[in-house]
Amino acid sequence: MTEMVFTHNLSKQFGELTAVDRLSLSIPAGEVFGVLGPNGAGKTTTIRMLSALIAPTSGQARIAGFTVGEQDRNIRKNVGILTESPGLYDRLSAERNLGFFAQLYEVEQVSAQVERYLRMLGLWERRHEAVGTFSKGMRQKLAIARALLHEPQVLFLDEPTSGLDPEAALLVREFVAELRQDGRAIIICTHNLDEADRLCDRIAVFKARLLALDTPAALRRQLYGRTVVFHLAQVEPRFAQAVQAKDFVQSAEVMDNKLVVTLDDPDVHNPALVRALVELGAEVRFVGEVRRTLEDVYLRLVRNDDE
Questions:
Q1: pLDDT at position 307, please?
Q2: pTM for the complete prediction?
Q3: What distance in Å separates the CA atoms of residue 287 and residue 285, rounded to the nearest whole number?
Q4: At what angle do helices 136-148 and 94-104 cross, to 10 degrees?
Q5: Could you tell me where in the chain the CATH 3.40.50.300 domains are found?
Q6: What is the pLDDT of residues 61-76, one digit of tens each?
Q7: Architecture of domain 3-220 in this structure
Q8: In the prediction, which pLDDT does 78 show?
Q9: How many other CB atoms sit within 10 Å of the CB of residue 43?
Q10: Can you give the three-state secondary structure of 172-209, one letter per residue?
Q11: Which residues of the chain form CATH 3.30.70.100?
C-alpha cells in the first residue's frame, strides 16, 4: 500500500515551547486518519508542517513521496487543506471563488473542475450567488470543494463539520467516505469524537507527543478490554467464582442481578460462559456488552498524561 504521509521524530519548537515532540507515524493511501487532542496539543502546527507551510525544528517528513524542507513546492501542489475558518471572498460568486483558486492551483480545465465539485457538493444551482449570502454549511461545502480542485493526494480537514446542521454534516461525512475510495490519504482534526469514531480507520491521540495510535476498536480493547453483562434471574457468588476461574476471563463481579465479566473475546467465549452458568443453575435472561465510547478512551489517555 502506497505511503502518503511519513514522519520520523518530527518536532517543532517556538522558543522554549515544544509544540510537537518527536512525532513518528505512517499513513497509507485510502486511509481516513483522525487526529485528536486538546486545544494547544499541536494539531494545527503538525498540519502546517506536513503542508510545508512552516518548517520543522527537527525530524523528517515525506508527503506523497516528497520531502518536507526540500521539495516544498511539490508538497503544496499535492495537498489540500480545509481550515477551521476558511477564508472565502464574500462579494464573489461561488463559481468565481473556485475559479480564482483553480487558477492559483494551475488547474488545466478550470470550468470543468469547478462545475464538477459544485455539482458534487450540491451547490451548482447557487453558483452565481455571492458567497456572503451563503449559510455556514454552504460555505463549508464550498471550502471543501476549494481544497479538492487540484485533486490532491493528501487532504487535511480541520473540523470539517463544525457548526453544520445534521443534514449538512451527514453530506460531508458521506463525501469523505467517497474520497477514501479515490486512494487519497485524509487526515481529520476534530473535537467531534463520535464523528471520528464513525469516519476514521485509525486514531492518533496526542498532546505535543503521541499518546496512542490505533483503530478506535483496538484502543478500546487496550484500555478497557471488552465487558459483557449477563442479566440473570438471580445471582449467586459462586457464579462469579466459576466464571473468574476461566483463563480467558480478566474479571467477574456481581452487580444487582447482573454478572459483569471482562474477557478477551466475547464473540468466541460467550457461549462457553452461558453454558457454564446454565450448568450451575443460573437462569440467563439476556446478554449485553458494555460499549466504551471513543470519548472514554480519549479522556482516559489525556488525563493519564496530565497525571
A1: 64
A2: 0.83
A3: 7
A4: 30
A5: 3-220
A6: 999 999 999 999 999 9
A7: 3-Layer(aba) Sandwich (3.40)
A8: 93
A9: 23
A10: HHHHHHHHHCCCCEEEEECCCHHHHHHHCCEEEEEECE
A11: 221-295
